[in-house]
Amino acid sequence: MSQIDSEAPVLTKAEKKTVRIRWFLVGFLVLGGVVNYLDRSTLSVANTTIAQEFGLDAFQMGLLLSAFSWPYAIANLPAGFLVDKFGPKKMFAFAAGAWSLVSMVTAAANSFGFLYAARVALGIAESPFFTSALKVNERWFNKSERALPVSLVNTGSQIANAIAPPLLTFLLLTMSWRGMFIIVGAFGIVIALVWLRIYRDPTLKEQSMIKGAEAEARVVATVEQVAWGQLFKHRNTWFMVLGAFGIFYTVWVYLTWLPSYLQTARGFSLADSGWLASLPFLCGIVGVVFGGWLSSRLVQRGVGTVRARKIPIVGGALLAAASVLPVAYVDNTALAVALLSVGYFASQVPIGCLWTLASDIAPSNQVASLGAIQNFGGFMGAAVAPVVTGAILTATDGNYTLVFLIGGVLLLVGALSYGLFVKERPAAAVTA
Questions:
Q1: CA dist list (Å): 238 to 9, 49, 146, 275, 374
Q2: How far, rounded to the nearest angstrom, does the alpha carbon of residue 427 sit from its chain's CA centroid?
Q3: How far is CA 48 from CA 43, 51, 60, in A?
Q4: Alpha-carbon gap, residue 174 to 26, rounded angstroms
Q5: Which is nearest to 73 in space by CA: 124, 2, 130, 12?
Q6: Of 218, 240, 269, 279, which residue is most buried, by most CB within 10 angstroms?
């Protein structure tokens, strides 16, 4: 812990103000994450409704559900660079305004092509959000503190995932799917305007209070800064990409197909599936916070920062695999939902630590870049997951067995990639 947190009783007035500001920013980023993921979840919740209106089969819906992820993944690469260059204030505000406008325009869709193009645009527009959040955390927290605030920011997505099924289902049933897209899009406009009003970077004095000697070490570490493209020459970068691919693949099977699975494979109505689908996502909120807490606790006990990130990442991925794989052979609905809930909890334990790991091993002015490259790998998995799932369901007449088997295996790939191949490096190296 830093001085300003560990010696709270003797904080000066300036130090207290710094603490308030940075945790307020974390809270607002959580809210931003909720709105961000509500926009992403609209199509998943309206899956069966839109499929019926446009006459889409499972494979076509899989293509539509993946239309967000692959442009999001690719756009993360320049987005990370742009956040490092222009800062989180401008890039987050731009992203929130852009994704909100896209969401509202989607309400006018009258064809598969229109919907597909809108989802592509949404993926591009949302790409700077989490890299901006990572940059904010890197600027306002020192290395030993960072895991918890980064994980808390990632709870925004899990809160959204938990409330999206019942909330968006309610909007869909009362306002149609088009009204749902408009209302959710309007939330983001408000977020963008407020962010422009409230955000600022820490002053030099605040940076000194927050990071102390770490600030000087960062300066030394970045004297021989390599170009952005050089990050791809390091083994750690590639195994972070592969590991994120494996973990995010299964997460996005949940995010895009869970409501449909509950309706088609388990026989729940649209209204009932909206509430039931929220259970795994509520567990996901706990998983993200637990991962950040565990990593911070390990650092406090003297465990190296990189190892302290890898333990929750690997442990969470292994537990998720052990929970997801049996679902393929479970007939009891209650047990299946319980396993899915444990699996999603475990799959979220690594999420905050993945982002924190990038901030730990990258120079200060490449934190967003390395985080974005890792996120690129994750969302390539997210892009593939809906299409592969849709193809499997089309070929097997709606049988989800192979869906869960592939998800479990890829979780194991993610655990092995981080556990065995992401190595600690000297502090001055890009992949330290």
A1: 45, 39, 23, 38, 8
A2: 26
A3: 9, 5, 12
A4: 33
A5: 124
A6: 240
Q: Which two tokens mark 22? A: 């940075």
Distances (CA, A) of 44 to 165, 167, 386: 9, 13, 10
Is residue 79 within a helix (H) or strand (E), and if so which, with residue range? helix 69-86
Q: What is the residue type of 67?
A: A
Q: Is 78 helix (H, G, I), strand (E, B) or coil?
A: helix
Tokens matching residue 415: 């655990």
Provide the whole-model pTM.
0.75
pLDDT tens for each residue of the chain, 432 residues long: 444 444 444 557 767 777 889 999 999 999 999 999 899 889 988 888 899 999 988 888 888 888 888 898 889 889 988 998 899 999 999 999 999 999 999 999 999 999 999 999 999 999 999 889 989 988 898 878 888 898 889 888 888 878 888 899 899 999 999 999 999 999 999 999 999 999 999 988 888 887 664 544 444 444 445 566 778 888 889 999 999 999 999 888 887 778 788 888 888 876 777 778 788 888 988 999 999 999 999 998 999 989 999 999 999 999 999 999 998 888 888 898 899 999 999 999 999 899 889 878 877 777 778 888 998 999 889 888 888 998 899 899 989 999 999 999 999 999 999 999 888 754 334 333
- H helix runs in 107-234, sequence order: 112-126, 128-140, 147-198, 204-211, 213-221
Could you tell me which of 252, 295, 259, 298 has the C-alpha nearest to residue 276?
259
Fill in the DSSP letter of residue 421.
I
In angstroms, the CA 146 to CA 267 distance is 43
Measured torsion, CA atoms of residues 376, 70, 260, 156, in degrees rounded to the nearest 10? 40
Nearest to 181 by CA among 205, 164, 198: 164
Neighbours of 360 (CB within 10 A): 23
Distances (CA, A) of 296 to 235, 306, 420: 26, 11, 21
